[in-house]
Amino acid sequence: MQGSTPPISGYSGYPEDDDQYKVPLIAKLLHALPHYNITFHRINNTFRPSNDVYLESLGILGSIPAALLIVSLFGLLLYLLTRCCDRKPRPAHSITSLKVTLSIVTVLCCAAIGLGLYGNDDLHNGLLEVLQAGRKVDTAVSSVRNQTFILENTLTMKIQQQLTELEDIFDGKTNNHTALLQLQSALAATKGNVTIAKNAANDIRRPLVGLTITDFLSKGDQWELIRWPGTVAILALLLVLCAVLLVGVARHSRCALILFSVCGLLAVTGSWLMSGLYLSTSVAVGDLCNDPADFLVHQAPNELPSDILLYYTQCDVSRSNPFTQRLRESHNAINNARNSMTTVSKISPVLFKNAGLGPKLGSVNADIKLCERILTQLTALVDCKAVHYSYLSATRGLCEGGLLGLVLMLIASFMAAILLTVMVWVDSHTWIYIRKRNDYAQVEEQSYVSAHQLHPQNHQNMNTRTLPHQHKGPPVISGSQTLAHPGRNLKHEMTPQQQAHLHHHHQAMMRQGGTHTLGRLPSHNNSPTHMHGPNNGKYATLSKHCKTLDANDFY
């Protein structure tokens, strides 16, 4: 029967040497990780999600990133305690190296987040393959249950009832007693064969009654419908946070850097926790992929024998189909029932001409032919190739593409957690030294006064240079020498004799007609027209005795 089954579409795409499941290398590596319980005793690493000790070992593995989170937060706390009270003003160029470091680490963090997005897509595709293959297996199992139910219902509710009615008719008296005995014997044989076929169909359907994965598939669809976009949203938020940091570094924004320091702590915590979750899940999936058939046998209902599961997961030609014997019995019984009904159809019309047996006999024969068609369909449905192909699709989708994506997400979350920790450290070190512009002006002014104290003679020579007197037109301010100031403490550095000489010189110039003017002087003006104004139409005065402009006058 198995040889007469037409080839399943899609199965022939696999090579002959690739029709069995092979454990991927990454699953072997994850399965090889030691599993310890709370007392640090090594336990069996067979995938048993219902075992509390096994779950305890996965929790211990997942707590490793949590321990790293505590260490990183404690280190950050110690750093902030040492730096929060440091209010020493720094020049702008002192944080350039910090800004460059932040930019490089942020770009690397964005790359790690991109790797997480790629892994999330691989995991999503792998889980979709698992769910799709699961639906095919569930459909095949449901089809077998439905066909066997129809077969049982046809044999019990239709054929047996009609045979009982025929038996009542054949109990009547007839002249040919020998033919009547032959008729009754053929009818009894038909009823016996129908019972055998019904029992065989019931034996096929009974192990499959409790086998349903519809609820599991529905929950898987709902979970993946939340997990995939949720992971994308979380990683997108991390990218936005990195963008905020880059903008803050580029714009020299203290607010943006402080915002990242606050949100970065949440991002670091979430990344380490995600690393722990991904590590535990990766190890669990690696344990599952090491021997998925054993897990299926362990989780199967008690009514489903293990040889049935092993037959469909391996589909080895050396194994016989566990349903073949029952199908053969049912098929032989239906054939015998059809032959017996042929005898009944020949004898009964002769013995019971006026009983109207034609419709009843035709209905029984039609139902027997229906049962034969159902058995033919069942023979194709219970073949191992279709279910085994779905099993291979599910295991390869989960243990190759899905597990690879999960490991990429683990690596990405671990790298992002480390890089975000470094970013928070460097960012906290950077925004502390970012001040307002007045702070930088004060730093530059202090540097200028310090330079004047070291070279007072050069500064005095610079101070004696003024704008040219013969220039016509608006005053021209040229370079830093014209507006250079001697500093606020220059007057206090003069000796009493120098201050008295300076005061005497100032009084003499006032008696000679005021200060020097910029541009035109009275002696240079030949126009007879008298110009009105406080300076007789001349430009404003700016001499070496005017108030020195300092940095604070511009803020």
TrEMBL record:
InterPro entries: Tweety (IPR006990). CDD domains: Tweety_N. GO terms for molecular function: intracellularly calcium-gated chloride channel activity; volume-sensitive chloride channel activity. GO terms for cellular component: chloride channel complex; plasma membrane. Residues 494-538 are annotated as: Disordered. It is found in: Cell membrane. It is a multi-pass membrane protein. The chain crosses the membrane at residues 58-80, 100-119, 226-249, 256-278, 403-426. Signal peptide: none annotated. The keyword Transport applies. The keyword Transmembrane applies. Keywords: Cell membrane, Chloride, Chloride channel, Glycoprotein, Ion channel, Ion transport, Membrane, Transmembrane, Transmembrane helix, Transport. Probable chloride channel. PANTHER family: PROTEIN TWEETY, TWEETY-RELATED. Belongs to the tweety family. This is Protein tweety homolog.
